[in-house]
Q: What sequence folds into this?
């Protein structure tokens, strides 16, 4: 009885927190699909009286959010594809090789990830201009990766350290080179961790605003957060349209969380333990 | 393939784990490296496997110098204490992994087009065939599609064994492979490993701290102590002819009885235990501060009023018991076998034949020969 009531209390609390966190997102989505006139109606209607897709349509086509969505998806994916192999190999090296002063290198990796990006804005801009990477997709992907690589490395160190060394020794005796051990044994064993890290890296890139702001200029290269940033200054924009843009930006992440929930949970807890 | 170690030493920082070990292992031998934890036996095995490098000394396998050679190029197999199976692979894939490492090409694993490469089919077939064959040898044929986590400890152990014998590697290193099994399984697996050795004639280097495993399985036992070889010989040699007290105590269960006898007490028969050694009296080797060693199987307890041992306890083994008697004055315990009931009120003295007595110098622990 006692444990039961405590259990229901924690469930109730979870619901409260869950609802509190979800209401703004829900409100955003409902605003996006409400007819315009319902928005300012008093009393407020909780559920939309009718469905109106025009906001989403306008955002997607007229305001080129289709293009921005494509940019965001492509840049984030490229940054994941670029930083994960590096993160995996570096993380493996840190977890297994006896590197002189490796403690300091590790700290440096963490430091690279912890530096507030805003400090790096000017240097990044200058470097990008000098390398002719300013206003290119590659430039943005590389910018995202400077942030994603240390993150992926750091998380992967934790995952590799959980794998017992005897398994690796066994593979070595069985005829596997370092590379084969990594490919046939360690990466499959760390699969869950790799997927979680890749997803988190993807979200990190998806959420990026500052790199896009300082490295991209042309309209056709803009990513979703950058586009919203530019358009929010537009006074002709209706609230419904604004929320439609937000919905387009948020939904993919929401889907990722729903479909890959178990990996996220795994990734977060191991991150918590391993720092 | 022979394995030769000459003056192998290993230090971790200031601690010297192995102190100039020299050893020659012949083809087909079943060598058990026996010792307490921390004596360097596992380090020695790792050095042979190439998982660790010696600080100095030379290692040769099949006459080839192996210092600095990668483990995969040494042609050895190894069974680990934790079995070290690959958890994401099935039993069949685990067993055939060494073959995969030899013959599989990276591009065979490519999605879709990997199947188009001509060699892939053959290699896959060879792997399957080898896995089936090796699994049959260790009676695992019915479990080939399982994952390691679905197996019991004994089954995992057998997967590790199958993986070691799958591709015709003729040397197998084993690092305490039985220590995670329960007593019954340990006995049966012990026999299985011995059978495998008898049948396929592998050279086996087997590390353990369990003297029973050493005695029952090894064709040769190397007893190690503090990074040195204490004694090297067949199990019978070490058991019957230990060179030191340490070796005498390590092998045999129950342990050898050691009775300290100072010179004075030999003469006076007072203070220390009273010994009645056969009819021939005392050996000249017994002169001085000595430990007298006598295996429990050779001790006889004779009831007598002048005896100075009293009954302490008995462990029934079925048919006979291990009996412990305690010395009245110094409290030392002597064990032997007995069938009859012991009387707690009576006193006993010990009787044993001079042929079975081993003398050791008390200070150095070395054997003194008659």
A:
């Amino acid at each position: 009885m006692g444990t039961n009531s405590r259990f229901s209390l924690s469930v109730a609390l979870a619901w409260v927190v869950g609802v509190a966190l979800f209401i703004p997102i829900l409100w955003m989505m409902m605003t996006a699909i409400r007819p315009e006139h319902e928005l300012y109606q008093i009393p407020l209607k909780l559920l939309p009286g009718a469905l109106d897709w025009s906001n989403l349509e306008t955002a997607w086509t007229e305001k080129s959010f289709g293009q921005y969505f494509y940019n965001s998806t492509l840049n984030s994916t490229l940054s994941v594809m670029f930083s994960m192999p590096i993160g995996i190999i570096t993380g493996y090296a840190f977890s297994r090789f006896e590197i002189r002063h490796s403690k300091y290198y590790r700290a440096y990796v963490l430091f690279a990830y912890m530096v507030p990006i805003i400090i790096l804005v000017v240097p990044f801009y200058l470097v990008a201009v000098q390398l002719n990477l300013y206003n290119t997709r590659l430039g943005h992907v590389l910018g995202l990766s400077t942030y994603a690589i240390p993150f992926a490395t750091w998380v992967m160190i934790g995952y590799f350290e959980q794998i017992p060394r005897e398994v690796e020794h066994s593979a070595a005796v069985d005829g596997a080179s370092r590379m084969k051990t990594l490919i046939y044994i360690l990466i499959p064993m760390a699969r869950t961790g790799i997927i979680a890290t890749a997803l988190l890296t993807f979200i990190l890139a998806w959420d990026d605003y500052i790199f896009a702001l300082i490295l991209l200029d042309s309209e056709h290269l803009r990513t979703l957060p950058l586009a919203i940033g530019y358009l929010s200054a537009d006074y002709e924009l209706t609230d419904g349209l604004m929320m439609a843009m937000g919905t387009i930006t948020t939904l993919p992440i929401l889907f990722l969380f729903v479909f890959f929930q178990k990996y996220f949970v795994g990734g977060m807890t191991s991150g918590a333990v391993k720092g | 393939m022979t394995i030769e170690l000459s003056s192998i030493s290993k230090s971790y920082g200031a601690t010297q784990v192995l102190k100039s070990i020299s050893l020659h292992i012949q083809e087909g031998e079943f060598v058990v490296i026996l010792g307490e934890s921390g004596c360097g036996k596992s380090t020695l095995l790792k050095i042979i496997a190439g998982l660790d490098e010696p600080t100095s000394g030379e290692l040769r396998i099949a006459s080839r110098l192996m210092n600095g050679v990668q483990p995969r190029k040494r042609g050895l197999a190894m069974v680990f204490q934790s079995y070290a199976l690959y958890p994401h692979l099935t039993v069949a894939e685990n067993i055939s992994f060494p073959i995969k490492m030899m013959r599989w090409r990276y591009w065979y694993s490519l999605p879709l087009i990997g199947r188009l490469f001509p060699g892939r089919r053959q290699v896959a077939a060879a792997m399957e065939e080898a896995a089936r064959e090796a699994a049959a040898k260790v009676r695992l044929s019915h479990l080939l599609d399982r994952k390691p986590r679905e197996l019991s400890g004994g089954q995992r152990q057998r997967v590790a064994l199958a993986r070691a014998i799958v591709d015709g590697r003729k040397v197998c290193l084993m690092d305490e492979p039985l220590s995670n099994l329960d007593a019954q399984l340990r006995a049966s697996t012990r026999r299985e490993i011995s059978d495998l050795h008898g049948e396929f004639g592998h050279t086996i280097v087997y590390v353990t701290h369990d003297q029973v495993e050493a005695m029952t399985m090894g064709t040769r036992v190397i007893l190690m102590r503090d990074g040195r070889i204490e004694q090297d010989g067949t199990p019978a040699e070490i058991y019957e002819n230990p060179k030191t007290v340490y070796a005498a105590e390590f092998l045999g269960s129950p342990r050898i009885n050691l009775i300290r006898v100072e010179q004075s007490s030999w003469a006076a028969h007072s203070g220390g235990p009273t010994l009645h050694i056969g009819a021939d009296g005392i050996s000249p080797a017994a002169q001085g501060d000595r430990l007298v060693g006598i295996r429990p199987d050779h001790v006889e307890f004779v009831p007598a009023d002048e005896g100075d041992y009293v009954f302490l306890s008995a462990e029934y083994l079925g048919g006979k018991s291990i009996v412990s008697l305690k010395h009245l004055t110094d409290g030392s315990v002597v064990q032997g076998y007995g069938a009859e009931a012991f009387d707690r009120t009576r006193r006993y003295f010990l009787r044993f034949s001079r042929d079975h007595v081993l003398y050791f110098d008390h200070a150095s622990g070395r054997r003194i020969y008659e």
User: Anything to note?
Assistant: The CA atoms of residues 83 and 191 of chain B lie 18 Å apart. The longest helix of chain B spans residues 118-137. Chain B touches chain A through 28 residues (CB under 8 Å). Chain B has a mean pLDDT of 87.
